[in-house]
Amino acid sequence: MNSAVVAPLLGLILSLFAPAAAWAATGNAEPLDLTRSEVGIFALVIFVLAYALVMAEEFTHLRKSKPVILAAGLIWLSIAWYYSVHGGQSEEVAMAVRHNILEYAELFLFLLSAMTYINAMEERLVFDALRAWLIRKGFNYRQLFWITGILAFFISPVADNLTTALLMCAVLLAVGADSPRFVALGCINIVVAANAGGAFSPFGDITTLMVWQKGIVDFWDFFALFLPSVVNFAVPAALMHFAIPDISPAPSDERIPMRRGARRIVALFAATIVTAVSFHNFFHLPPVLGMMTGLSYLQLFGFYLRKTHGRVPSAHPYNLEVADKMIGDVVPFDIFNKIARAEWDTLLFFYGVVVCVGGLGFIGYLELASQVMYSDWGATLANVSVGILSAIVDNIPIMFAVLTMNPDMSHGQWLLVTLTAGVGGSLLSIGSAAGVALMGQARGRYTFFSHLKWTPAIALGYAASILTHMWLNAAHF
Fold this sequence. Notes:
Elements: H1 3-17, H2 19-26, H3 38-55, H4 57-60, H5 65-85, H6 90-123, H7 126-136, H8 141-155, H9 161-175, H10 180-198, H11 206-213, H12 226-241, H13 262-283, H14 287-307, H15 320-325, H16 335-340, H17 344-363, H18 365-377, H19 379-389, H20 395-405, H21 411-423, H22 433-441, H23 448-452, H24 455-472
Helix pairs in contact: 1-18, 3-5, 3-17, 5-6, 5-17, 6-13, 6-14, 6-17, 7-9, 8-9, 8-10, 8-12, 9-10, 9-22, 10-12, 11-20, 12-24, 13-14, 17-20, 18-19, 18-20, 19-21, 20-21, 21-24
């Protein structure tokens, strides 16, 4: 890694673990300076330990939500204890906690609605039908490499990058059983494409969603990142293209019919997105209100599916084509089953992260980090470093920390940090949920080291996307 980047990163880490010196440098003195207290150090250590357990989830099999939820409670309990003992305003602590929970509630309900739609489409076999169609077309390995990458790039802005990556990886595993090299390169390509595709859409990644919900970047402004995201995906894909075997897999004629109502659920999901955007852009209401309104569309349609459950048209009692379309009526459609199948560990992990980072911000550490990164380094280096850090630490706490710092920077810089936080996780296989999931799905073929081998190519795409953004969107800086 370039020493020009390593030195500032080390500076930030040291500033967090040496709060007294960093605070003295800012010249700030508040009545309850928790950054210099035992409670401040305790909170920081608790957060670091909790996040170490999160990063070790693959080896410990301890769900990532558990340590951060515990850390969140301990951090705020220690803050409240300090305030009560030293005569601080305990009401301020309670108000700060409520503010963090309100921010989480908006994120939680938005994601719950989106996850419910994705689960409904999955249950109606939308994604399985797409996978079977791709396999049936008889593409060769190089064509499938590009097709799965391009589909991941364009599906992830609507669906989450984890679902998108798992779907495309299922295609690779189905057709590439005899070519581990193709599976490894295809998985790398999918991870890069899914992360890049999510960076130019408010719905594509948790980080972009947080930026949009904060009102910092308008809905349509995200699409200024489309071409930089294309560059981020295309550069490493072009370099990997020639390493793909130029042969064709064995043909398959598998067909998977979608279940009744599948296309209408896809249409309702599109209508839900339009509703959320309209609520925010035209009426200045929180996007989550539009998403929850859209969830009611699925609930009402689910009620219709239940009421018409098992009714095969009497005019065609033995028509197999009609019978295929009625698949799914064996068990009635239940919207609450789809809600129950949401990624609850992920949703609770977000709670822990938001509340933990909020606690560190209340103590004063984020102000110190903001001083080091955005005043001493400069906005551009700071935002590029955010992307590099997100390859090691999850991009969600990093982006939430940046939003909490709320540094004074141009619109172009906010777009830059949105881009880097979204695509920086592609630098390592552990840097994004998509990469971690595919290491499990393609175990033994797509590994940390197979991804690391192509990190220079991915880093080249990362740098090229930043330069493309700074060139194309120069007017925003």
